[in-house]
């Protein structure tokens, strides 16, 4: 699908209706413009762009979780159990008691 439109003196362009419909663009809703290094420009409904960024973040998070679980030195141990293991026992004088 290819269309051309003229740029107004205010820098505005009318997006053809069939393109607005295909992208789900609605009056008054935000639109995101993305430009690649080669000069290619995309128009994306801002909600869809946000959903795409969220999906990318969740994918990276899952990859990090897999990596950390693979390198877990104490599998199955809770955070509290691990902290208790690495902390030195308290002495009475460290607790502020005079015993």
Largest sheet: 2 strands, antiparallel
Number of alpha- plus pi-helical segments? 3
State the strand order across the main sheet: 1-2
Distance from first to last alpha carbon: 83 Å
- What is the gyration radius calculated from CA atoms? 28 Å
Number of strands: 2
Poorly predicted segments: none
Helical fraction equals: 40-55%
Describe the global form. Answer: elongated
Number of domains: 1
H-E string: HEEHH
Structural class: alpha+beta
Beta-strand fraction estimate: 5-15%
Mean pLDDT across all residues, rounded?
Answer: 83
Description:
- This protein has 99 residues and is of the alpha+beta class.
- The chain has one domain.
- It contains three helices and two strands.
- The protein has helices spanning 17-23, 46-70, 79-86, and strands at 31-35, 41-45.
- The chain has a two-stranded antiparallel ribbon with strand order 1-2.
Task: Please provide a brief summary of the model.
This protein has three helices and two strands; from the N terminus they run αββαα. The protein is α+β, with helices and mostly antiparallel strands. It has one domain (17-86).
Helix and strand arrangement:
Layout: H1 17-23, E1 31-35, E2 41-45, H2 46-70, H3 79-86
Which key phrases capture this entry?
single chain; about 100 residues; alpha+beta; two-stranded antiparallel ribbon; about 10% strand; elongated
């Amino acid at each position: 699908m290819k269309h051309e439109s003229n740029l107004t003196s205010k820098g505005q362009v009318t997006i053809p209706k069939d393109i607005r419909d295909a992208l789900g663009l609605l009056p008054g809703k935000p639109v995101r413009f993305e430009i690649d290094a080669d000069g290619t420009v995309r128009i994306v409904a801002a909600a869809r762009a946000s959903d795409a960024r969220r999906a990318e973040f969740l994918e990276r998070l899952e990859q990090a979780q897999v990596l950390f679980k693979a390198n877990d030195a104490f599998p199955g141990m809770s955070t509290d159990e691990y902290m208790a293991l690495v902390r030195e026992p308290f002495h009475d004088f460290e607790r502020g008691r005079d015993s």
